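hey so u asked for the seq, here:
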Amino acid sequence: METPKITLSEDTRIETLKALKILDTPAEERFDRLTRIAREVFNVPTALVSLIDENRQWFKSSVGLEVSETPRDISFCGHAIHSDDIFIIRDAKRDIRFHDNPLVQGEPWIRFYAGYPLKAMNGERLGTFCIIDSKPRALNDKNAQTLIDLGCIAERELSMLHIATNDELTKIFNLRGFKMLAQNNLDVCIQHGFPASLIYFDIDNFKSINDEFGHARGDKLLISFTKMLKDSFRTCEVPARIGSDEFGLLLGNKDKNQAEDCIRVFQKLIDVYNNNVKEGYTIAFTHCTVEFDALKHSSIQAMINEGQDLIYEIKNRKNNVVQLHSSKIKIA
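ran it, structure tokens below
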């Protein structure tokens, strides 16, 4: 068996794939529709949208295959991403590269494979749109073009998914992307009985900073805050900008007290930044932590709603204290 080679631009390819934040996300009709069409059009038992990370091929969409991933070192798609053209194996049992492959010798008994390499907007090949049969067969020019056409649609969906779920300024999830992936991660925590905590951030005085220093400086603040957030919460898979000056994090396998410990570490990073970078303003934030409670939270949206309410209450209390302090100064 011939093991797929690592691509020449592997580091960039993996970075591009991870930036999409699509791995291990739930199935989506936009991709499932394409694989269903492919199975019917080509009369094959299996059609896949396959993405190749460091060690596996993971299926964003799969019809006719029960598993969600297989090792990269036995994958056909791992070979397919080395070319811009369709990668076709007419009969794997007669191909020296694949005849003893476990996927040929056992389930799903691959004999025929055709995969169109899926390219990101920067040209990196991330995976394939592929069809599989347990019988040898060929692919004529018309069918090959149809596979390319379906693959191109899948490419556009990947690009649109990135645009639709990511914040253009900070390059992290927006609210839509956060809810999609955070719900998936929350479901995993619930399934295994792990705690999960949502941290909701609101940057203090952001509107005033924007008004006084201009939007360019305001954007710089958001970018700096995001960088510190990512640096401090390196093990967190779901950081997001969920409002103009609001950010969220879902911490899996951490209860509220553990999440607050993480906040204290993050605050130290903010303090260092404020001491070293003189922008004319300081970065400060208000936060709250919502620990998952099955009796209160039916979804990640319910946790977000509670976080929004708590932040509103905390900010109001802060403002009332400031106003009271200001009134005492005037009386004196």
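The longest helix spans residues 300-331. The radius of gyration is 25 Å.
lmk if thats what u needed
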